[in-house]
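Lab channel / #folding
Pinned by the channel admin:
"Please post every new chain as: sequence first, then the structure tokens as a reply. Keep commentary short and put observations after the output so the thread stays searchable."

First post following the new format, from NK:
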Amino acid sequence: MPPGLQNRGFGRKLGIENNKHDLPHAKRSTTMNNVTENTKVIYVGIDVHKDTNSFCAYDSREDKLFAEHKSSSKFENTLHYLKNLQKSVGQDAVFLIGYEAGPTGYGL
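Reply from TO:
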């Protein structure tokens, strides 16, 4: 479970307690020391709102913005987006994910 989401019920609701992630081959806590110039790094941005989330991905190697998507703010939709993104870019890609939320978005 990502830090900050613990004790908020997300893990119990989704069955991903105790760091069991629903992304089968995700590289949890990959350190930047393991990233080389040959590593495919995908930057993911999430704009968080009460009712919706907007997603986009950026591949710095190809200087390409892709996979723009908007969905309801359910956590399951975020996992679904990341799973589909992982399928499209490959299992070996490393994801760096950031989100933007207004003053009320941190608890969403």
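NK: Helices lie at 10-14, 75-89.
TO: also worth noting, The first helix runs from residue 10 to 14.
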